[in-house]
Amino acid sequence: MTDEKLHKALARLGLGSRRQMEEVIREGRVSVNGQIASIGDRVKTGDEIRVDGRLLRYSAEQEKRRRVLMYYKPEGEICSAHDPEGRPTVFERLPPLTNDRWVMVGRLDINSTGLLLFTNDGELAHRLMHPSNQIEREYAVRVLGEVTPDIARHLTTGVELDDGMAQFDSLVEKGGDGINKWYQVQLKEGRNREVRRLFESQGLKVSRLLRTRYGTVSLPRELRTGRYLELDRSEIDRLANLVGLRPRQGTGLYGIAKRRQERQQQKPLKARRSNHLRRNKPR
């Protein structure tokens, strides 16, 4: 039976980076089969692993099929597994997993829409989000106000925000009517509301924001809001390669599930609006 290092297993489960997991182990917060764990410990399928007393669902790396979903987030859903205010979350419409869980790759604020990735591979999720890997994100943004050449230069050379310097790697006008213009922007990090804050720093207001690409994955035309598609092996392997992870056997869709999704792409399901929007629709 294959085993693996404990800190790697914890990172793969989406609890943080390998370095962060080493620190958690050093602090004595992890136990394996009832014993406090140490750096260098190895674990295998069947071991009882707990962090801060919470039992984890664990299976060895090569036994676990790497899966990735692309989800078209509608306006009004929050990027959280649970919301104390009872608002709908992006996790509510994902397919259930047995003895596993979906890990969200990045996030979008409640008023933003577009591409969200989910995976059951915590290490893949962490690497895709980590700033050191410089994963490109692309957005379609509708802006209220004029983006002058000087403003465009500021936005692409660097603006001081509350949490440091930020900039777009590219900013391209895509048309529009009157003072509402669409722009395509790209950047390689995902700080909180960064796209909106960059435009706001120049006295401009973002009226719509749609993420269209994350790394090698683009939002397909046939995917409607509130729906998801599962990536196939070649798409997942490209994502994994982007962050230096090896391909894994049994990755992605195959067989009947793959054929079912191919039929769905030919005849897309209707869009699903957020429950939040339906509840707040004027009567």
Describe the structure.
This protein folds into three domains: 57 residues, Structural Genomics Hypothetical 15.5 Kd Protein In mrcA-pckA Intergenic Region, Chain A, CATH 3.10.290; 110 residues, Alpha-Beta Plaits; 79 residues, Pseudouridine synthase, CATH 3.30.2350.10. It has eight helices and 17 strands. A hairpin with a 2-residue loop joins strand 11 and strand 12. The model has no long low-confidence stretch (mean pLDDT 88).
In short:
Helix content is 24%, strand content 27%. The protein has 283 residues and is an alpha+beta fold.
Structural domain tally: 3
Outline the low-pLDDT stretches. none
Order of helices and strands: EHHEEEEEEEEHEHEEEEHEEEHHH
- The CATH architecture assignment of the largest domain turns out to be 2-Layer Sandwich
- Residues in β-strands, percent: 25-35%
Q: Might you state the CATH topology name of the largest domain?
A: Alpha-Beta Plaits
Termini gap: 61 Å
Largest sheet: 9 strands, mixed
Count of separate DSSP helical elements? 8
Q: In CATH, what is the class of the largest domain?
A: Alpha Beta
Q: Calculate the mean pLDDT score and round it.
A: 88
Task: Please bin the fraction of helical residues.
Answer: 10-25%
Mind telling me the CATH superfamily name of the largest domain? Pseudouridine synthase I, catalytic domain, N-terminal subdomain
Count of β-strands: 17
Structural class: alpha+beta
Globally, the shape reads: globular
